[in-house]
Amino acid sequence: MKTQRLDSVLDKMKADSIDQMLVSDPYAIFYLTGKMIHPGERLLALYLNVNGNHKMFINELFPVSEDLGVEMIWFNDTQNPIEIISKYIDKTGTIGVDKNWPSRFLLALMDLCKENKFVNSSYIIDTLRSSKDEEEKDLMRKASLLNDEAMGKLKALISDELTEKQLANKLSGIYEDLGADGFSFSPIIGFGPTGADPHGTPGDRKVNVGDAIILDIGCIKDHYCSDMTRTVFYKEVPQKAKEVFEIVLEANKRAIALVKPGVRFCDIDAAARDYITEKGYGKYFTHRTGHSIGLECHDMGDVSSVNTDCVEEGMIFSVEPGIYLPGEFGVRIEDLVLVTKDGHEILNHHDKEICIVG
């Protein structure tokens, strides 16, 4: 167990009167133990108690050879893991559970522990994860540097012989050659009108002269995620598309310039959104300005108009304004931003100025 992180979790549990907690999120378990286990439909749970005596409940299908610093309680597919867990739980007080723990587990445990109060405790570890330590910052930098390289290689492959789907498929090989550990999310690649769907799926469309091309890509390296979007143009840039691109680029820069400890997330969002609205495209900016990122591409927290929390040192999030004109094209420019002691550091270094390919 990572002692300092565990101690912080236990301190927060005590402060919030949560006596016990079942951590089932694989990323949260990795954050505390250094071991990544993806259990699929099977139960996996790290049991924490403010009085100690922590346990890991794990199926024999997932062998663990290393010492994780916690007692392992093994079970197999013929046993009922909820009944096993219930034998170790104190039958009074509050039990915290993860927000995504399947109801088939939670409801069964609630039935066996009728005297306990159950609450969502995900925020405890999620909040700790939101501010990265020095090791995590370096891992995030490395993942983003790989993504920078990948973006350059991907742009060089764009031609009118490849469909969106075929170009996306080539990205897998690019990441493998660079030593990445796979995608942090399925790539979003859109040519021309396809790019007007902010989360469109690559299809069979081939690129045409003058198309705006959205390239939203990310990889994983040593468990940490990268994410970046660049919009480029095939062979030439139509005047309207150029104007929209420059608006989005300026919105991106304005929002990033505001980032420093103490600034509210909603004000960062407003810096981008208000500028796009001022230029007449407000209704075409249809999503939040950004999301937190780390072990998962979308960690808890976002850059949106309703998030009044203040930015803190060590946080990493995206700034990705966009304009999407149905039936025409879309433009999005995204960078990851690390909050430093007195400002920020942009983790992406791949050029984001206007670019013509092909």
TrEMBL record:
<protein>
    <submittedName>
        <fullName>Aminopeptidase P family protein</fullName>
    </submittedName>
</protein>
<dbReference type="InterPro" id="IPR050659">
    <property type="entry name" value="Peptidase_M24B"/>
</dbReference>
<keyword id="KW-0645">Protease</keyword>
<dbReference type="Pfam" id="PF01321">
    <property type="entry name" value="Creatinase_N"/>
</dbReference>
<feature type="domain" description="Peptidase M24">
    <location>
        <begin position="139"/>
        <end position="341"/>
    </location>
</feature>
<dbReference type="GO" id="GO:0004177">
    <property type="term" value="F:aminopeptidase activity"/>
</dbReference>
<dbReference type="InterPro" id="IPR036005">
    <property type="entry name" value="Creatinase/aminopeptidase-like"/>
</dbReference>
<dbReference type="Pfam" id="PF00557">
    <property type="entry name" value="Peptidase_M24"/>
</dbReference>
<feature type="domain" description="Creatinase N-terminal">
    <location>
        <begin position="5"/>
        <end position="130"/>
    </location>
</feature>
<dbReference type="InterPro" id="IPR000994">
    <property type="entry name" value="Pept_M24"/>
</dbReference>
<dbReference type="InterPro" id="IPR000587">
    <property type="entry name" value="Creatinase_N"/>
</dbReference>
<keyword id="KW-0378">Hydrolase</keyword>
<keyword id="KW-0031">Aminopeptidase</keyword>
<dbReference type="InterPro" id="IPR029149">
    <property type="entry name" value="Creatin/AminoP/Spt16_N"/>
</dbReference>
